[in-house]
Amino acid sequence: MKVVLIRHGESEANFENYWTGWLDVSLTEKGRQQAWVAGEQIKAMGITFDFAFASVLQRTIITCDAVLEASNQLWVPLHKTWRLNERHYGQLVGVNKDVMVAQYGKEQVQKWRRGYDEPPLYVEENDFDRRYDSLDPRLIPKGENLGMVVARVVPFWQDQVVPLLKDHKNILITGHGNSLRALVKYLEDVPKDDMDTIDIPNAQPIIYEFDSQANLIERA
């Protein structure tokens, strides 16, 4: 069985160099093209899917739809889950990265960006729309370090993906830089101090193969 991970194509926030987190931004035209090309690559490799997952943020949903359409698989069932959302960057959300470096220094900003245990400055209140209304408010963070992202992604894998793999299904997972880094950490047992070595480029398929008990065989 195969699982393909794909980070969304270039977003408006990537282009304008600000932290996005749970902010819901769309793709640039370049990002849409990247997603389509990823789908063409999957088609050329002959990979077919039975189920697809995306976060509840439009940049992954648009990417997922483009990948499925370009690979002639738009009919595949798509489930959206907040557990695949990007890391919640707290007070950094919507702020230009260069501005934060000038204000707090490069070293501190790097800790906020890449620190496994160090969260960003928390927001006092989240201003989210009704897509999160059904969630227990205690699940919704006001800022996250990487460890917290791992803690919410792993249950998604165990509860939703593993049963499908054991049922011999192929799966597409479209996520964000940090939610996919968290998943890669778990799947490959990467030490937390080595998470900087995990690179998740925009719209580049990462392919894993599993046996019938959902044990990892190899990363293609």
Automatic annotation (TrEMBL):
<dbReference type="InterPro" id="IPR001345">
    <property type="entry name" value="PG/BPGM_mutase_AS"/>
</dbReference>
<feature type="active site" description="Tele-phosphohistidine intermediate">
    <location>
        <position position="8"/>
    </location>
</feature>
<dbReference type="InterPro" id="IPR013078">
    <property type="entry name" value="His_Pase_superF_clade-1"/>
</dbReference>
<dbReference type="InterPro" id="IPR029033">
    <property type="entry name" value="His_PPase_superfam"/>
</dbReference>
<feature type="binding site">
    <location>
        <begin position="20"/>
        <end position="21"/>
    </location>
    <ligand>
        <name>substrate</name>
    </ligand>
</feature>
<feature type="binding site">
    <location>
        <begin position="86"/>
        <end position="89"/>
    </location>
    <ligand>
        <name>substrate</name>
    </ligand>
</feature>
<keyword id="KW-0324">Glycolysis</keyword>
<protein>
    <recommendedName>
        <fullName>2,3-bisphosphoglycerate-dependent phosphoglycerate mutase</fullName>
        <ecNumber>5.4.2.11</ecNumber>
    </recommendedName>
</protein>
<keyword id="KW-0413">Isomerase</keyword>
<feature type="binding site">
    <location>
        <begin position="177"/>
        <end position="178"/>
    </location>
    <ligand>
        <name>substrate</name>
    </ligand>
</feature>
<comment type="pathway">
    <text>Carbohydrate degradation; glycolysis; pyruvate from D-glyceraldehyde 3-phosphate: step 3/5.</text>
</comment>
<feature type="site" description="Transition state stabilizer">
    <location>
        <position position="176"/>
    </location>
</feature>
<dbReference type="Pfam" id="PF00300">
    <property type="entry name" value="His_Phos_1"/>
</dbReference>
<comment type="function">
    <text>Catalyzes the interconversion of 2-phosphoglycerate and 3-phosphoglycerate.</text>
</comment>
<feature type="active site" description="Proton donor/acceptor">
    <location>
        <position position="86"/>
    </location>
</feature>
<feature type="binding site">
    <location>
        <begin position="113"/>
        <end position="114"/>
    </location>
    <ligand>
        <name>substrate</name>
    </ligand>
</feature>
<feature type="binding site">
    <location>
        <begin position="7"/>
        <end position="14"/>
    </location>
    <ligand>
        <name>substrate</name>
    </ligand>
</feature>
<feature type="binding site">
    <location>
        <position position="97"/>
    </location>
    <ligand>
        <name>substrate</name>
    </ligand>
</feature>
<keyword id="KW-0312">Gluconeogenesis</keyword>
<comment type="similarity">
    <text>Belongs to the phosphoglycerate mutase family. BPG-dependent PGAM subfamily.</text>
</comment>
<feature type="binding site">
    <location>
        <position position="59"/>
    </location>
    <ligand>
        <name>substrate</name>
    </ligand>
</feature>
<dbReference type="InterPro" id="IPR005952">
    <property type="entry name" value="Phosphogly_mut1"/>
</dbReference>
